[in-house]
Design a protein that fits this description.
This is Formate hydrogenlyase subunit 3/Multisubunit Na+/H+ antiporter, MnhD subunit. By secondary structure, the protein is mainly alpha-helical. It has 22 helices and 2 strands.
């Protein structure tokens, strides 16, 4: 008896869901932390064994949808699976002794299943359910420690997640209707590429995916959610989960069809975030917050490139391989940098030197140091970005360099005794090595060109001046004792919170006035609204209720589409 290799795609999703079910069992649940590295193993196998561009139909499930692994999807899937594996190994030691380890393992597996499902979906139903599962199940990871800052981050996260899911659902329904009721991704994408396609659909999709990917000004959840989550969860949030948004844009944007206005606006928002997020992040005091803004900056770069390519009407073949390769490198390198936050403070002596060296190589690669994998993948995306975009990408080395230097200055001091466990050091080193090596080995396959063809030593030397300027500025600041100003994380959340507080005060005053003047009408209504909002806030802040709600919503989505 032989088993079709394409069935492996189904196992990729079902296996972590099965492990999530085991987390609910009284006897096995407390031990399921040991299974974290096992969750992405079928995905790693699929990267090597599953056929490409063949749809696996799943009758009776999700409106008879299917799974499909594309050449672009394999880079996203492989990078995500590798990061989830090493982050899971890291979590074995990091989460040991945590009273909520069982809950952490449960939602870790659910998010993993959704994350991998996004990269394999061949139809709207499968894609949306997977995407929603990522969004909803990640909430308990964000609020894991139940501290006030975590709960605040959770509220911001879940509000924007719901907004994003709503925009995405509306866009999917509109485009499916316009495409004659088909839910196959290829069909709706072709309809979106038609000259008569409604631009509103495109912008609903950009909004839904942009929130997940951290498109400025829709990014505000990242700088608060990433620092709040445990270190291994932060690593996958930044390195893999935000890539679901990037992959959504990769999958649904109408490549080959010129959208000058929409593409230009997306490019401006993306490239604007590339610089503003990096500068704001360089003024943070928490290393995880610094890295969160770095992710916003780097994802802004990718969205700027895609916006420029969309405006020019470039075909998918000239855009997507480079974007996927850049996303893979960023996910692995950023995962290593996040894991380093939980390791470096426990290391001393030779161990600390090894950790710092691994982090430095990952950081320099992200900044685009010549002859690193980061410089290689940046050279790949400069073509689709156009001349102006390529110039901005080159200049971004300055802000990225300053941002990552700030990261090292915010890392915890070395421990006075002891050292980090090997289970925490090995994943960090492994991800750094993968980030530095894999893009070189995959470059030819992704782009069709040999990597050495992208290396021009003279051009590299000339283009390295922004990174050199960043080094000069850092040295000058150290020599003069100049310190970077400290800004609150969340940037736009501050003004939004003040505006909300003023609105609440006005509402309370109006309620009191209405209660005294017309107690049976406006005043009573406003008082009831205020009371309802307070109950909703208490419900959100309740761990058990929130967890149950997330599970019920996820199950409801599956049931509705079955």
């Amino acid at each position: 008896m032989t088993i079709a290799p394409s069935l492996l795609l189904l196992v990729v999703i079902l296996w972590p869901l099965f492990l999530a079910f085991l987390c609910l069992l009284p006897k096995l649940g407390p031990r399921m932390l040991l299974a974290l590295p096992l969750g992405p193993l079928p995905a790693l196998a699929a990267v090597f064994l599953a056929p490409r561009d063949q749809t696996l139909s799943v009758p009776g499930v999700l409106l008879d949808g299917g799974l499909r692994l594309t050449e672009t999807g394999v880079l996203f899937l492989g990078g995500a699976a590798l990061l989830w594996f090493w982050a899971g190994v890291y979590a074995l030691r990091y989460m040991r002794g945590d009273s909520r380890a069982q809950t952490f393992a449960l939602f870790w597996m659910l998010v993993l299943a959704g994350n991998l499902g996004v990269f394999l979906a061949a139809d709207l139903a499968t894609f949306y359910v997977s995407f929603a599962l990522v969004s909803l199940a990640a909430y308990p990871l964000v609020i894991h420690d139940r501290k006030p800052a975590s709960m605040r981050a959770g509220v911001v996260y879940i509000i924007l997640a719901v907004v994003g899911e709503t925009a995405l659902l509306a866009g999917f329904m509109m485009i499916a209707h316009a495409a004659g009721g088909t839910i196959l991704i290829e069909g709706v994408r072709d309809r979106l590429a038609d000259p008569g396609a409604d631009p509103l659909v495109l912008w609903l999709l950009i909004a839904g995916f942009g929130i997940k990917a951290g498109l400025v000004p829709l990014h505000v959840w990242l700088p608060v959610a990433h620092p709040a989550a445990p270190v291994p969860a932060s690593a996958v949030l930044s390195g893999a989960i935000v890539k679901a948004g990037i992959f959504g844009l990769v999958t649904f944007l109408p490549w080959g069809s010129a959208w000058p206005i929409s593409g230009t606006l997306l490019a401006l928002a993306g490239f604007g975030g590339l610089f503003t997020a990096a500068l704001y992040g360089a003024m943070q005091g928490n290393p995880k917050t610094v890295l969160a803004y770095s992710t916003v900056s780097q994802m802004g770069l990718l969205m700027g490139v895609m916006g420029a390519a969309l405006a020019a009407g470039l075909p998918a073949a000239s855009v997507l391989p480079a974007v996927a390769l850049y996303a893979l490198h960023h996910g692995l390198a950023k995962g290593a940098l996040f894991l380093g936050v939980g390791v470096v403070g426990k290391a001393r002596g030779v161990a600390r030197g090894l950790v710092i060296a691994a982090l430095a190589m990952a950081a320099l690669s992200v900044a685009g140091l010549p002859l690193t994998a980061g410089a290689l993948v940046k050279s790949a995306i400069k073509g689709p970005a156009g001349d102006f975009g390529a110039t901005l990408i080159g200049l971004s080395a300055l802000t990225s360099g300053l941002l990552l230097v700030r990261y090292f200055f915010t890392l915890p001091a070395p421990a006075k005794s002891g050292g980090p466990p090997g289970l925490m050091v090995v994943p960090l080193v492994a991800l750094s090595a993968a980030a530095l090596g894999l893009p070189w080995s995959l470059y030819a396959r992704a782009t069709g060109n040999a990597p050495y063809e992208a290396i021009d030593l003279l051009a590299l030397g000339i283009s390295a001046w922004p990174l050199g300027l960043a080094a000069v500025l850092v040295i000058a600041a150290l020599g003069t004792g100049l310190r970077a100003p400290s800004l609150a994380e969340g940037d736009l959340l501050g003004p939004a919170a003040r505006l909300s507080a003023r609105a609440a005060a006005v509402a309370r005053a109006a309620a009191l006035a209405g209660r005294s003047e017309r107690p049976g009408e406006n005043g009573q209504l406003l008082a009831e609204i205020a009371e309802g909002l307070e109950r909703l806030e208490r419900l959100i802040n309740d761990r058990a209720a929130t967890s149950a709600a997330v599970i019920l919503i996820a199950l409801g989505l599956f049931a509705a589409l079955t």
